[in-house]
Amino acid sequence: MTDVLALLQSHRSIRRFRPDPLPDGLLETIVRCGQQAASSSNIQAYRIINVTDASLRDTLAELAGQQEYVRLAPVFLVFCADLRRAQKVCDRIGPPFVPGMTEHFIIATVDTALCGQNCVVAAESQGLGCCYIGAVRNHPAEISALLALPEQVYPLFGLCIGYPDQTVEVKPRLPLGAVLQENRYSEEHDAELIAEYDATMQAYYGSRSDHRKDSSWSREIAALAGREARPHMAAFLKERGFLLR
User: InterPro entries, per this entry (predicted)?
Assistant: First the structure.
């Protein structure tokens, strides 16, 4: 196993950080690593906002579910899917920009996610910890206004980065057989694989050093998928010029 394989399999979300700042130039190096992620047709449809203003951080933390680590992490980035740049290129050299295409939305969203994951791997390789903040989508219109995001841009997720001030166990993942299959989709062994994973997660939740609870993967997923999730997003995205056709 190479160091890269070990690093990827040791990922944990870090939510408590030491106050130490990143060394000069390291954030820029991390973002350059993000830029080297695969990009559909090299469109690079993302923009990253480094939020350094303390009052702005306070407001973002409140809008993102009162998550203190948004306030306290040495670095907080907002990753935005950005088709505005492509729109401006079309305005400059033609042909006219075609707004609202679902495929373009998927491309921008995937590009942004790939860039973010490269940034996380780069940061973790330097001893830093990270935590994705999907809760920036709790109030996307308000956050867009705060960050002056124009149409054809939307906030996809935040990212806290800093030196860890906690020890966190690696969260077990689904058995490989539940996700890796050959030639075609099959649910044949899902019931037993999920039962096995539920037992693993029940033990993990009950023994971890921070925030112990009595639960399982199935119970957590039923609580998540058994309710509406950010129903405001469809209307918000259409208002921003996405998902019109």
Answer: Flavin_OxRdtase_Frp, Nitroreductase, Nitroreductase-like
Q: Does residue 57 contact residue 51 with C-beta atoms inside 8 Å?
A: yes
pLDDT at 206 over 90: yes
DSSP string, 155-176: EEEEEEEE-B-S--PPPP---G
Helix (H) or strand (E) holding 56: helix 54-63
Structural domains of the chain ordered from first start: 3-168 (3.40.109.10), 170-208+211-227 (no CATH)
- 228: tokens are 């509406």
Asked if 100 contacts 241 with a C-beta cutoff of 8 angstroms, the reply is yes
Q: Strand, coil or helix: what is 80? A: strand
What single-letter DSSP state applies at residue 13? B
Distance in angstroms (rounded) separating the CA atoms of residues 153 and 145: 11
Cα 118 → chain centroid: 11
